[in-house]
Known about the structure:
With about 350 residues, the chain is mainly α. The chain has helices at about 1-20, 30-50, 60-85, 85-90, 100-120, 125-130, 135-165, 170-175, 180-205, 215-225, 260-265, 270-285, 285-315, 315-325, 330-345; strands at about 210, 230-235, 245-250, 255-260. Helix content is about 75%, strand content about 5%.
Amino acid sequence: MIYTNLLVFIAVIFLFSIAPAGESASHSLFVSLGLYGLSLVGFQLLVKRVFTSSQSGGTVGYFGAERRLSITALLLFALTLFVSDIKYHLSFLSVGGLLPALTNVGGLLLFFSYLALIWRGGHHNYASVFGGQQSPSSLVAGNLRFNLALVLPWIALSLMYDMLALIPSSRITLFFDSLWGDLFFLGLFLILVLLFFPPLVRRLWNCAELEDGPLKEHLVAFCRRQNFDATLCVWPLYEGRLITAAVLGMMPGLRYILLTPALMQNLNMGELEAVMTHEIGHIKYRHLLLYVLLIGGFSLVAGLLAEPVLYLSLSMDWIFQLIAKELVSAETVIMLVGGLPLLLLLL
């Protein structure tokens, strides 16, 4: 689910960023909120139907239902975003245009409202599969913390960009608009992910250090034989009943290997060493750094491709025929034909 959610959030952020927010709105605030409310009501009915069906039972059924509903939420959010003027009405969050990132965060929170309906609607199924004793509101809060970790680097970097742009200097403005400025923010993104992200995620995911005992002593000694150092943590993912592991961080002292209770209970020592070797391999081969460079580097590629893709799209006759029908505004059509190819390439 982590990778599915990450891709969904990337799509949400991208779609909200290309959604038009002109100087005036076609719909009043009341109409925009009404369209948004209707989408929530309709989605709530769909969530109830999906989780009461026989196909949503069991572990596979629960995860499958959650995945399908997340993608449906993305499509419904995109439809609401481009049909209504919800982005325009959220622009007040930007403090007079000084902090556009706050408007984007507001859009992200709107999408989280769809996800909250999934988590609350699936509470009964979740409890039957994982045996959790959480209330629906506690389950929603826990899922919110878990998924918030996936978007925090983007939120932090966006706010930093806006605040640095407030510095009254033409030289700094030119620097930020150049390739060197893009490289600067890529470096800043790396620092955020490598230094501040791992301990923050550990707290958000309620990961506690593995208690002292024979198991910890054995695994620590195993890491030392691999010339590797990391803090071993218990990961209570899905009530601790999911059998999985993960590694956070690349820097010594800010590096954590997360092990779920079910993993430690069901694997023998040799199998646990194999899992540890796999997680250590991610660090040895610098996979985390590669992921960050791929995501951050794509923004540089997208910046180079944005204009050519837009011009190529606008060279097609059917685009102008669509604009002439006036089903949606010309600005919306141009944003979509210029942005969707980049979104598909990113995904």
